Amino acid sequence: MVIEDELKEAAVFERRKPDVFGDAHPKALLRKVVENGDYLKPLSNQHILSTDQFDKNTLRQLFRLAAKFESNPERFSTPLQGKILISAFYEPSTRTRLSFESAWHRLGGDIMSITDRSTTGIAKGESLYDVGEMFNNYGDCVVLRDRSDQSLYEMVKSLRIPIINAGNGVDEHPTQAMADLYTILKWRPDLSSSKVDDKLKIRVGVIGVPNQMRTVRSLLKIFAKVPHMFSEVIVMHDGSTDPVFDKGQLEHLRNAGLNVNETTKVKKLVPELDVIYINSIAWIGDTYTSFQEKIRLTGKSKLKDSAIILHPLARGDELSTELDETPHNWYFSQARGAVFVRMALLTCLVQRTERVIDVI
Amino acid sequence: MVIEDELKEAAVFERRKPDVFGDAHPKALLRKVVENGDYLKPLSNQHILSTDQFDKNTLRQLFRLAAKFESNPERFSTPLQGKILISAFYEPSTRTRLSFESAWHRLGGDIMSITDRSTTGIAKGESLYDVGEMFNNYGDCVVLRDRSDQSLYEMVKSLRIPIINAGNGVDEHPTQAMADLYTILKWRPDLSSSKVDDKLKIRVGVIGVPNQMRTVRSLLKIFAKVPHMFSEVIVMHDGSTDPVFDKGQLEHLRNAGLNVNETTKVKKLVPELDVIYINSIAWIGDTYTSFQEKIRLTGKSKLKDSAIILHPLARGDELSTELDETPHNWYFSQARGAVFVRMALLTCLVQRTERVIDVI
Amino acid sequence: MVIEDELKEAAVFERRKPDVFGDAHPKALLRKVVENGDYLKPLSNQHILSTDQFDKNTLRQLFRLAAKFESNPERFSTPLQGKILISAFYEPSTRTRLSFESAWHRLGGDIMSITDRSTTGIAKGESLYDVGEMFNNYGDCVVLRDRSDQSLYEMVKSLRIPIINAGNGVDEHPTQAMADLYTILKWRPDLSSSKVDDKLKIRVGVIGVPNQMRTVRSLLKIFAKVPHMFSEVIVMHDGSTDPVFDKGQLEHLRNAGLNVNETTKVKKLVPELDVIYINSIAWIGDTYTSFQEKIRLTGKSKLKDSAIILHPLARGDELSTELDETPHNWYFSQARGAVFVRMALLTCLVQRTERVIDVI
């Protein structure tokens, strides 16, 4: 099957990787932001349903805490001792589920997983209200992903423990957006200041369809919390979906102060961008749909030397592996950072902030 | 999607709930029963297959231990350290599985879950005897739920670690019955005495079908262990199933000293009862069947002021949410208490009793 | 359902079993082999893909470490604290999965399970390379079983954490072969020496089909690492599969110094063997196939008094339960030992060897 030299080569591996993937950067962000636990206190009795809930000061402190975890991954192994997470993925997922479960394990907590909706009481006709009341008795925190937009809002009516929305239908995916913004700040910690000089603002392209993709919907909302970071945010698409925004979605973002536009002239614009966010897959019901299959980033794409690429993953052909070993690749750092962002958020939600924050 | 004020309201929650749900009551039971670990010793080399195995003294001590856990939920986090539970739910369940897994986690143990019968060796034709021998090597305790009545009895032939029956076909569900009785004793700790004055005995109605529902079968059996608590136990049904008892089932209960009767005059009787136990769903094979869809408890039902309602959950229309905020609602306390009852039982089965009992 | 005396009998169990199953023997192996941690160092940056990777000195030390764990099962409960295992069983399994998960739990680590390939990004078209990069961020070690031979080799291209092959298609199952050889050495610790007197070498029969069964393929390879143990290894089959070896497979084994032959004269040969290894089930794709249904070992089979039987389990009719209570039964010891062999290997792979080895 596998001849001997090939086997020897396959069987040995290196643990370290070159820092082309931006692994040194959490420390830079850690130094830039002054710790202030006051802004984390409101999280102790909140559910995380929508990106709309956050304010920039809380986000800044969550990112600092995430950077603290990412800079010292071995140090914080006990903050969630004795706490139980109910990991409820009624809509299938491996990546997001493992990201949350890894975060919870790293902090010393215990986990119960539900990965098959058909085994639940819901299949017996049980109301989500009753499911929430059940969860109150069994765990300390819930992470929920479901095909339906509304399940989450039904469940919170009875929940007395915090729940994080890990993706509700086409609506939102708040922690993914947090991970995306965290990555940008790891790359450019100076953007975490309250004021950013015009010359230093970044121009960001988002290749995606805001009214079809919860990742993009949440991303634009989180950008609207920190509009001073951006000279412009441009939604880029191929014109095959029309319209790309929900009614009122674009106005809402602009009213928050975000300079957001849309275009189909993707090829022309990409070389001018500082950050290119690309995503092509959206889950609709039981299946996934690929949008905009004609837009692809490859080794041949013209990019600014300093430009970075973000992708929530899983990826298909729209983001070529030719870019993996280039300095543009910040999507792996994005996936890595997502665990630490979730560690920060989960710690605050279950009231263990005082175990990890010095100034509180 | 969700407008901003609605979001603010949905996103904030309270951790405490008013004690209309009977949460203060474990302490009353704890004071009433004197601790005596001798009665727990027989559990150290027993499987929990049927409610028939228990005697009232062991039950009383298990309930006292459960009440100790429920009164001090944070105190006992290490008794099961180093112990592994094999959580085998060959018949789907979320509620019972999470209840057991939460109990085991709360006590510091580790868990391996099997939630899909088709991934097991049984699908390869492996005997349950061999599955039991396998479990001996991998864990310290098994919890099993299966569609077949007999799987459990096949498996115990080779098991050298304890197993708990979490529901075997239509036969039994012993720990659910324990949770039900525990709830009654939390509500009325005086009933835990060996003698109960006639004027204080309770009149209990069980809305269900004993020969179709393992929850009801086990419940009546556990009542028959403590017949002195009851002035009468009445099985109430709508007459659509006939007969409602298996051959010999009723005689067996009466021989144990339980004053048990049946009736179809449900509406007339309900206002006279101290405890109303209601259940309508039974799992038969791969699907569930609803029994007695005409019998419903709602906000309009005439109940004694002091009457309490029990339901093993999940519920459908037979128990209206209108009752949730009334003092009759002891079904949420019942679900909550089930975790602590299981904690008590599991601790004793894996020989860790000495870590939680003072007098042993 | 179950009458009372039968219940009493079913409900009580013994924890100990008579040592007909070879449980005392780890200590003999422990005494025989001198500890030398140097031979375990190469494991700290290796994937375990194929049995071909091992050399006899590393195997000897792994078996000594396994024997140390098996002799003192309660002692080593913390070596893997803080380490996360990704248990990825894309091809269904309960036995092997629980064996690995039990091993990891026993050493104090945490686990995330993937038991349904359809929930993974692979179902979205994600490459195995990207899955590997994802695993780098979420865990410290991967165990993978998949229907395809090649998935493993695709995944290692990006992995920077160790992976163990728990069965790849028809190709290999290295840790099963390790468990099999470990069992032989527990039975005959003298065979662990570098030299074995001709009179003491063992004659081993392998009832199985090497080119269809990954367990047999890996077993023959591991025998070829220690050819000095065997006077002869005979592959025994019923002639219904032809050929039974892949092209070059037999030559490769013989070139390594293993005296290996094949025969269909099974009945004649069995009474002359010291070790009989039997397996009849092979998983091909989504279903299993039984090979050689005419070859069976039963209580009537003529065996040398001192002969031992091995079987990777799950078993069907080919190995009768009549043999379970005889001294020939080493297949239960084999299953038990597999957990400790995996504990030894996992500890070394995640660089925690210094926590369990004295001489390193």
Strand order of the largest sheet of chain A: 7-6-5-8-11
* Cα end-to-end separation of chain A: 59 Å
Structural class of chain A: alpha/beta
Q: Helical element count of chain A? A: 11
Q: Quaternary arrangement of the chains shown? A: homotrimer
**Radius of gyration of CA atoms of chain A, rounded to a whole number:** 20 Å
Average pLDDT taken over every residue of chain A: 90
Write the layout of secondary structure elements.
The structure is a homotrimer.
Chain A: H1 4-11, H2 25-32, H3 56-71, E1 84-89, H4 95-106, E2 110-114, H5 128-138, E3 141-146, H6 151-155, E4 163-168, H7 174-187, E5 202-207, H8 214-223, E6 230-236, H9 249-255, E7 260-263, H10 266-269, E8 275-278, E9 281-284, E10 287-290, E11 308-310, H11 331-349
Parallel strand pairs in A: 1-2, 1-3, 3-4, 5-6, 5-8, 6-7, 8-11
Antiparallel strand pairs in A: 9-10
